[in-house]
Amino acid sequence: MSLKMSFWVRPSQKNQDRKSPIYLRLQLDGVRTEYSIGQYVLLSAWDSKGQKVKGLNNESDSINGTLGALKARTLKIYNEMLISGEPFNSFSIKDKLVNGATKAMTFNELMEEHIQKMIVLKGKSYSQPTIVKYRNSQLRIGQYIKKRYKRNDIYLYELNYDFIDGFEGFLKTEFNNSNTTCAKHFQRISRVVRIALNRGYIKKGLCG
């Protein structure tokens, strides 16, 4: 897999100095993400073809130096992830660039975190039977991941429609679950997915 990087300026956004933000776009195996790098430039000073600031002055040298350093850092992160052998995509590269994250969160980690919060609020916001149902969904997801992927967990950024669709088939064939039971599992899983979306762990449209 090959990582594609590009810098671009968003004309529709301008600060009080009439400058627009520079964005870094990352694309890997068809998965694309982007974010503002915190640098601004006048549209007239931006070389879109060369993806750099025009001219030879302190400001252009400073911004172009930042772009070069960011590109080198991105490649370093990409190569480190390749060597690690763990699954990753453009979102996990961005997470490490922006947050310095060293480990992407897994589905089970986030679900366990949510269940622990439910336990703290037991008797107030959640009942014991509800917590037990979440535990059951957590168990079923774990069994599904182990059977399908031969792993104990799955990273949040790996979730997609195929994963969800396969889980429904697993519930029906392995446990003879009805459509109603499957729907209840999906409701609980959707709650965890919404948390992941709100925190930026996965892209909007997922389960996409």
Which properties best describe this structure?
single chain, 208 residues, alpha+beta, DNA polymerase, domain 1, 2 domains, 3-stranded antiparallel sheet, two-stranded antiparallel sheet, 6 helices
Write the layout of secondary structure elements.
Layout lengths: L2 E7 L10 E9 L2 E11 L4 E2 L4 E2 L4 H27 L5 H10 L7 H14 L7 H22 L11 H15 L3 H21 L9
Helix pairs in contact: 1-2, 3-4, 3-6
β-strand amount: 5-15%
Distance between the termini: 20 Å
Q: Topology as H/E string?
A: EEEEEHHHHHH
Broad shape: elongated
Number of alpha- plus pi-helical segments: 6
Helix amount, in percent? Answer: 40-55%
- The total strand number stands at 5
**Unreliable sequence segments:** none
How would you classify the helix and strand content by structural class?
alpha+beta
Radius of gyration, taken over Cα atoms and rounded to an integer in Å? 22 Å
The main sheet comes to: 3 strands, antiparallel
Read across the widest sheet, the strand sequence of neighbours is 1-2-3
How many domains, in number, for the residues?
Answer: 2
* Chain-averaged pLDDT: 88
What's this model, at a glance?
By secondary structure, this protein is α+β, with helices and mostly antiparallel strands.
